[in-house]
Amino acid sequence: MSTPDRARPALTELALVVLGMVLGVATLFVLRALGLWPTGTRGLGLVSGPTITGIAALFYLWAQARLVEAGADAAPVHPPLPRAGWGRTAVVTVLAIGAALGGSMVIGAAMELLGAPVSEQEGILEIVADWHAGTDRTTMVILGVSAVVLAPLAEESLFRGLLFTRLRGCSGRPVAYLASALGFAAIHGNPAGLLVYGWLGVVFALALERTGRLSSAVLVHMGNNAFAFAALLLGP
After folding, report:
1. What is the pLDDT of residues 79-129, one digit of tens each?
2. Distance CA 21, CA 57 (A)
3. What is the pLDDT of residues 2-44, one digit of tens each?
4. Angstrom distance (rounded) from CA 36 to CA 97
5. 217 with 160: CB under 8 angstroms?
6. Residue-number span of the structural domain to which 32 is assigned
7. Closest Cα partner for 47 from 55, 232, 226?
8. Are 199 and 224 in contact (CB under 8 A)?
9. Under a CB-based contact definition with an 8 Å cutoff, are residues 10 and 177 in contact?
10. Are 208 and 216 in contact (CB under 8 A)?
11. Distance from C-alpha of 159 to C-alpha of 66, rounded to nearest angstrom
């Protein structure tokens, strides 16, 4: 397949992701305008990201089906990834969690030495400070549910289950890894952590590719986030 032939379906897939995210943001805006999504509540704000990403994933699925029906689906039909057995899946998942955490620590240490330390988002740090001060426990619980359960489910469905898998078939593995990792990093809105998020996106995609199971990528994502959340919870 020539470069233009690979580029066209890739752009279509990326456009579906962008449109889905825009639709997710617009949906929450409308709900807030109608008073159905209260503003000024930190807890609800923490689930906004997974909600937007989940809406984007549903839109992606719907749009794909409409393109196929119209005969305009640009991505070629390709066989699904072969599924590994549960034993191999468990091993790959555990190793991937270690790679996610270890790689993140190495990147963080390297950026510290370069004078550009990775930092957590300010809003998260405020929630953690309130937890340690004992002034707000509920929001920290909601943060944990969002970070450890909701975000991995929504983000892996969109960026690995849909975008990575589709791009791998129509544009090749390098494009699939790069685009899905960059998209994943971009939605977090934390420039200081861009390299870490990019690395995590690559590891999550690798877990999916090596096992053929989206559940492996979700579990690796959950394991990584659970470790990070525990560090916030138990840290000074």
Report:
1. 678 899 999 999 999 999 999 999 999 999 999 999 988 888 888 888 999
2. 8
3. 555 566 778 888 999 999 999 999 999 999 888 888 766 666 7
4. 38
5. yes
6. 3-234
7. 55
8. no
9. no
10. yes
11. 20
DSSP the chain: --HHHHHHHHHHHHHHHHHHHHHHHHHHHHHHHTTSS-SS-HHHHHHHHHHHHHHHHHHHHHHHHHHHHHT---SPP-PPPPPPPHHHHHHHHHHHHHHHHHHHHHHHHHHHHTT------HHHHHHHHHHHHTS-SHHHHHHHHIIIIIHHHHHHIIIIIIIIHHHHHHT-HHHHHHHHHHHHHHTT--GGGHHHHHHHHHHHHHHHHHHS-HHHHHHHHHHHHHHHHHHHHH--
Residue with tokens 């994933």, as numbered in its chain: 57
Residue whose C-alpha is closest to residue 205's, from 177, 234, 170, 178 = 177
CA-based Rg of the chain, rounded to a whole angstrom?
19
The pTM for the full model equals 0.92
Distance CA 222, CA 97 (A): 9
Of 20, 15, 24, the residue nearest 72 (C-alpha): 15
Query: Could you give the dihedral angle defined by the CA atoms of residues 161, 162, 166 and 168, in that order, rounded to the nearest 10 degrees?
Result: -40
Question: Residue 52: what residue type?
Answer: I
Instruction: Please give the tally of structural domains in the chain.
Output: 1
